[in-house]
Design goal:
Length: about 55
Amino acid sequence: MEEVKFAQLDQQQLDKINELEEKIGVTLVAYDSATTPSQGSGAFQANNSTHNNHPS
């Protein structure tokens, strides 16, 4: 089994995560993409761009 590690986030990133958690009512978990299992594992790969992927 491959090891998955939590991401190390700075304060600005943590603030954004907390804001999104409150807005959508869920708990979010940030994983380190360098240790995330590759394709076919069912893992979700985050888009690290500054643009939103959802039009809402």
